[in-house]
Amino acid sequence: xxxxxxPVQGQSSCPKDRLGRKRRTVVxxxxxxxxxxxxxxxxxxxxxxxTKYSFLSFIPKNLFExxxxxxxxxxxFLAALNFVPVVNAFQPEISIIPILLVLAVTAVKDLWExxxxxxxxxxxxxxxxEIYSRKRQMYVDQRWQDVHVGDxxxxxxxxxxxxxxxxxxxxxxxxxCYIETANLDGExxxxxxxxxxxxxxxxxxxRIECENPNNDLSRFRGxxxxxxxxxxxxxxxxxxxxxxxxxxxxxxxxIVVYAxxxxxxxxxxxxxxxxxxxxxxRLNVDVLWSxxxxxxxxxxxxxxxxxxxxxxxxxxxLIPDTTSPALSGFYLFWTMxxxxxxxxxxxxxxxxxxxxxxxxxxxxNDVDFYNEYMDSRIQCxxxxxxxxxxxxxxxxxxxxxxxxxxKMVFRRCTIAGVEYxxxxxxxxLEVYKEDEAMGCSHTLxxxxxAKSLSCxxxxxxxxxxxxxxxxGHSEGEESPSPTLPQxxxxxxxxxxxxxxxxxxxxxxxxxxxxxxxxxxxSMELTYIVDFxxxxxxxxxxxxxxxxxPRHVVRNIPVTSTSGTGEQNELFSRGKAASFTPSPSxxxxxxxxxxxxxxxxxxxxxxxxxGLDGVPGEDGDQGYEEEGExxxxxGEEDKMLHLNPGAWSVLENxxxxxxxxxEPGADELIYEAESPDEAALVHAARAxxxxxxxxxxxxxxxxxxxxxSLAVRLLHILPFDSTRKRMSVVVRHPLTNQxxxxxxxxxxxxxxxxxxxxxxxxxxxRQGHIREQTQKHLDxxxxxxxxxxxxxxxxxxxTRHAFAETSIENREELLLESAQRLETNLTLLGATGxxxxxxxEVPETIEALxxxxxxxxxxxxxxxxxxxxxxxxxKLLRTTDQLLTANCDSKVNALLLELRTEVERGExxxxxxxxxxxxxxxxxxxxxxxxxxxxxxxxxxxCRAVVCCRSTPLQKSHVVQLVRDQLRVMTLAIGDGANxxxxxxxxxxxxxxxxxxGMQAVMSSDFAISRFKHLRKLLLVHGHWCYTRLANMILYFxxxxxxxxxxxxWYQFFCGFSGSVMTNSWVLIFFNLLFTxxxxxxxxxxxxxxxxxxxxxxxxxxxxxxxxxxxxPSTFWLTMLDALYQSLVCFFIPYFxxxxxxxxxxxxxxxxxxxxxxxxxxHQTWLHVLVLVGSALFYFSFTLVFSVVCVTCSPPxxxxxxxxxxxxxxxxYGVCALTTVLALLPRFLFxxxxxxxxxxxxxxxxxxxxxxxxxxCRRMQHWNQTQAQSKARGLIINVEDLDIKIPDFILxxxxxxxxxxxxxxxx
Length: 1306
What we know:
Layout: H1 15-19, E1 23-26, H2 34-41, H3 58-66, H4 70-81, H5 92-95, H6 97-125, E2 128-133, E3 138-143, E4 152-156, E5 164-170, E6 176-180, H7 182-185, E7 190-194, E8 207-211, E9 222-225, E10 231-234, E11 239-240, E12 245-247, E13 251-258, H8 264-267, H9 278-310, H10 325-339, H11 348-364, E14 379-380, E15 394-397, E16 409-415, E17 418-420, H12 423-437, H13 493-496, H14 502-509, H15 522-537, E18 542-544, H16 565-573, H17 635-638, E19 669-671, H18 675-686, E20 690-694, E21 698-703, E22 707-717, E23 725-731, E24 738-744, H19 746-752, H20 760-782, E25 786-794, H21 799-804, H22 810-821, E26 826-834, H23 841-850, E27 854-858, H24 863-872, E28 881-885, H25 891-907, E29 914-919, H26 920-926, H27 932-940, E30 944-948, H28 952-966, E31 970-974, H29 980-985, E32 988-992, H30 999-1002, E33 1006-1008, H31 1013-1051, H32 1064-1074, H33 1077-1085, H34 1091-1096, H35 1102-1105, H36 1112-1136, H37 1144-1163, H38 1168-1188, H39 1201-1205, H40 1209-1236, H41 1240-1248, H42 1252-1268, H43 1292-1301
Parallel strand pairs: 15-27, 15-31, 27-30, 28-29, 29-30, 31-32, 32-33
Antiparallel strand pairs: 1-8, 2-3, 2-4, 4-13, 5-11, 5-13, 6-7, 6-12, 8-9, 9-10, 14-33, 16-17, 16-26, 18-19, 20-21, 21-22, 22-23, 23-24, 24-25, 25-26
């Protein structure tokens, strides 16, 4: 029998030691072994439950969760305290009403959210898949929730995987299965999975041992042990993950290893994120101050009551009591705690939750955040930091995919030191840009596939199914036709239809020329063919077509087109004048010369430099200064000049006869893992170097003039962030050499491109190529292009195969082997790929800077590329002074020097600002403990900072440094997995659902589809959310303090006895019901400034950055205002009824009515409906209560009191006078302040109320006034900034006025 756990014995080689953790044992569910069956039953089933509660556990569990809040415990304690006879203040039953109401409202909200999750779980658990049945000996339909570990599951094309399964069988002859992980990480490209060991349920008698469930999507460790004790290693490429979709494979069978909540998908499902906002932290401080005020008031009453009893002479009206005055004062302290409990706003926390949910609802339903191309809208994953959006001071942004489209389009290239500008291709891209600006759609409408149900059809055309949007087709909806081509990711016409460079085409056409062998330029042609061979095969692209799910390669012989006899002859024997024959592979080691040295060329042609010329002193034979099209000497004279029609064979890169925009039946569809890969494969295809098919062991490539070649694929060294490159190891079909083709970052490849020893002429040629390529790379970077270098090498070692099959330390061995393979590379060339800016990025960054937000760009690109993008998006203005920090040592001196330069610039007049550019190496030094201060001081004085060549870890360290040291609100935005750490460290993390998957989105607080949405999210919704919540919280404190003070003043006239001048029902409901609607409505709907004005005037955002709406001074001024109003509200009725026979309740009636009117008119006098509704509710309740209630509030009797008071004119006179005198100072103060020194927000709000003509004139006057001012006020000189107003922002009446005012605001 097998055990799940085994004891560790020293350094044994047991699986537990090698895996480094406890293991899971999985066997077939068909087993008859009872012990193994019990093991399988101990694992989680596939039923998924994301709800918190069940029918029976809801009340106790929800109550337990709500008791985690200190405020709820506090009010429950007071409710219980009121049941103690010696300290109770009013009826015990009434005291529990507020806390019960708050708990009930919160419970209903939690129940509604949980019910939504329950509906989703029920749908997911009810999906159907095929499970192998032991009884029926066949596959039967079962619901997902009935799947268990050890079950055999059979899936067809386009079906969703129900659980984490080990792949046992694939209908593909090579045991390959393709999956789409869009439901898991958002990536629409296909991933390849391999059968670990092909078995069927009938003959499966093996045991699987693997690691315990975890959330690492990229890792799986384990082995399969056969009955013979032989073991086969299992890795991540053998595992099919839950929620992924089967693609391009007819049938697969797997055994379930993780089910339900133990699957990796569920382990990564963390749900909404919860953070504490800055406003909430400030609120907690003020709640503590309220507690202090409460204790002071209660102590005052307790001491006053004790002194009053001690000094009381005649006690005939008191019930005889032996209690001492000190003890009575102690009891009175707790009685006053109960009476004044509303000083702590019991309903504030639940009100904040309701307001934030409503704010999120409005944000998510803002149509401006909808992206019709991606069919996506904003996602609010963090439910309680909406107000932080209005206080951001620093924005840290990624570049690729965040500021740019991440639609990689091949732009130009350099091969063997010769630059090919592809001018026609550049003009094509400009046409696309112009057409998109005019609204024409040359690109795909959506990169997301059409929604459809899982299907068992054998037609494997692409469809997309989301576990969150699985719905059936509507009755009138047609399913996609299985014969229509389906667009894949990174395959829009803009990315595919590349126009070749004519000069490069002429050189490639020499392969088909009968004069090819007479040309000395064939050496350069070798580099060209190798270059495009690397572009075509150095990837993991899956090839398919509309009529064929996947193009696979079997043992296909090399087929040739007409005119290739000369090439074959060349490959077999060569030409003495220019070539040397390839060494025979049989007598010597593969890929080596007879003397054992590696073959230097490792090329399609084994070529040595020409022998006709005399080498120069530097060994650089045959070169001259770079001309217009290259640097190969004599090339213009020796190259065969062809007429323009000679290269027409290369013009159509679609593989069909029609135009590029009309896909033919034989059109190839490339499923790439990244847009860079797709761009390079499409570029190679434009030159007829076409990747036609792929299998596990072979690639089918078509080369110009040579036809289709079957290339044996030996190994793939995938890209990783450590190596920053990718390589493939292939056996060349013509030379039979083992060749390593490598592509990667120029900073890495240029260092690895070192010539072998003992090849002087080759060293000279490679030195020249490296020099010229570096110049071209610098030019590409200045143009803002993404650069990749291409290189190659002959491989002689086979140690990498051992690393591939190792179970122990596999990752370390693979990295070591890859580093050994990728050395002494022969540089072939480099590519320049354009990644265009997203729409409205410059306008968004400009608006954020005007709003006082500092924008930092953190990117891994080259410095020149980063600077170019910074200029293009107006982060770096033409008037800015650029500061660069690039050094390997003495960083401290450099930072001090730059800081001195900034200080001189600030002292001088006319300096616009500084922009700091720091490379990754310098950033390492700057982040050290002793240099942090200098770096922060320098960056704080700069308008913007660009960190280039930065790693993901550096990004997070920079954000954390700025957040913690400067104590500012930070926002990080990115779209890739390398931005996750930065997003999680920032106060607000925003993910962009773009081309790099959903890792950033899943780690973010908010998710948007375009960078431009950040503008409205911060400037409009951020401003509204912060202002609304801040004013609502102050409103709550104000009304509670104001009303509690009325009860406190009454204690001075009742011997501090804890009595109140109103009945207990009105006392409880006053804050809970009568005055609760105004602050709620204010927090949800109030707009101090319209959305259009907030967009046009980004400077209004600064009020939130400075927390002007909720400062400590604002809080205490609100408390003083409440104190004054309570004095007026109490003593005017007191003096009005002095000397009368009015009893306690008659005296309290006008006080309550006046307090209600004062509170309603305090903040929301514009909300007439709420004001009238709340007032009518109060008066109706008190009238009915006074008429029908006889014994509702013992020992007092409110019967007829309010009815009598409301029938007397004195009541209304007192209420009117009290309300006016209480609010008059407040209104006078605001009137004077707004007249003498109005705030920017008030100016903008007043302008919103103007008609279009007056609005236009006021805007013009405002701009002219601000432009003449030297100080930077609300508006800066917009003409200097060359700002354009989008037409969609202005009302129709203002568009005509715009010409007269010029560029007003954007």
